[in-house]
Design goal:
Layout: E1 2-5, E2 11-13, E3 29-31, H1 34-50
Antiparallel strand pairs: 1-2, 1-3
The protein binds zinc ion.
Zinc ion binds next to loops.
Length: 51
């Protein structure tokens, strides 16, 4: 599942349920929207091209 943080807008993927944002440590995370999931996947593809 892809999660989004409402505090810092960090997007991250976890297979297990997550409670805290790995970036800012706050518990203001929620399931990412379809748009955010697309953004997340595009970022992964962009990172691959940077290598
Ligand atoms: Zn955060």
């Amino acid at each position: 599942m892809i999660y989004a943080c409402d505090s810092c807008h960090f997007l991250f993927s976890r297979t297990a349920p997550a409670k805290q944002c790995p970036d800012c440590g706050k518990e203001s995370i929620r399931e990412a929207t379809k748009e955010e999931i697309q953004e997340f996947e595009q970022r992964i593809n962009a990172n691959l091209w940077d290598e």
